[in-house]
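S2.1 Query sequence (3-isopropylmalate dehydrogenase)
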Amino acid sequence: MQNTYKIAVFEGDGIGPEITAPTVEILRALSERAAYDFDFIPCAAGAAHYAQFGESLPESSMTQAQSADAILLSAMGLPSVRYRDGTEISPQIELRKKLDLFAGVRPVRIFPGLNTPLKLAPEQEVDFVLIRESTEGLFYTQGCGEVTEDEARETLLITRETSDKLFRFAFDLTRRRKASGRGKGRLTCVDKANVFRAFAFFRALFDAEAVKHGDVQADHAYVDATALWFVLKPWEFDVLVTENMFGDVLSDLGAGLMGGLGVAPSADIGLDHAVFQPCHGSAPDIAGQGIANPMAMILSAAMMLTWLGERHDCAALKRDGDQLQAAVEAVIGAGHHLTADMGGVASTQEAARAVQNRLLSQ
Ligand code: ATP
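Output structure tokens follow.
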């Protein structure tokens, strides 16, 4: 019998709808030739929805997300639409908290055709994964920080419960990467344990988990030094795990190493749910022009296929995840259908169509 997977789709704001439509089309095309199917459920949420209806994440959308097998999300938020306290609408952060998506997975992989600012020797292969804790850290008090006339306070929270889950996830991912032939079996805890007690606690929890994973090489790095090494010797990293705000900043630096946000995918994963979305935001400056780069969104969809495949032990989904990623890399490597952010002239549709054609010709 054919398995049907329910996918909650948040097309979001700005360029969101433009990059979501061709991505869903690719997934549909893939499922048509495979022994699985998708039921795509459109879910309303975001800044435009808030401006119109006064709520950013309707209960009905939350319910759909909770009952879905996976969630595909483009980007939400618009600088012109804000809550009364001046902060931007970001239901994706609410989703992470409500669905307990503690592990933000941000792969950084430099392959031919990317506009990396690095000068790499042939043997210097950059292929690492940053895992950003996504439910607490300095984002814990989001929307609840105290601001008076003279001072502002936000609270950072690190809990044993979340950290234990996060580190178990990180060790497991490191092991799986090595087993698949892509990783070195090395996991680095990124913190600021030399200055803050909270990070000494974070590091101690990491060390306690490391003892249970003798097959993984566990080490530490301070976040400031990590930023430096991302630029000077990124090929030395394999998997890194860090706090929410540090991860937020480092993942954009990682996207920079890949040549820009338009090619940086991500996943926010918990024990029961997962959201797949590009690292970039809603890019309102180019929205509506049909020139947004769809590659980060398509690569995020590839991560979704792989995750679903592992979760449901479905070889066809895992194979299609690999093939979708390979098709994106082939199109970028060929350099003929690149969008403006990558120096090309292709439209969003043309770039996505090139991936679809490559994929279906395999
Ligand atoms: P957020 O805070 O929501 O992550 P942001 O403020 O970092 O968003 P983005 O919306 O990611 O900003 O946009 C940053 C810059 O990158 C903008 O100039 C935008 O046009 C560009 N950009 C982002 N995503 C894409 C894309 N998919 N294709 C082309 N350009 C993009």
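Residues 15, 77, 261-262, 280-283, 285-286, 292-293, 296, 341 surround adenosine-5'-triphosphate (CB under 6 Å). The chain has two domains: 1-101+268-277+284-362, 116-258.
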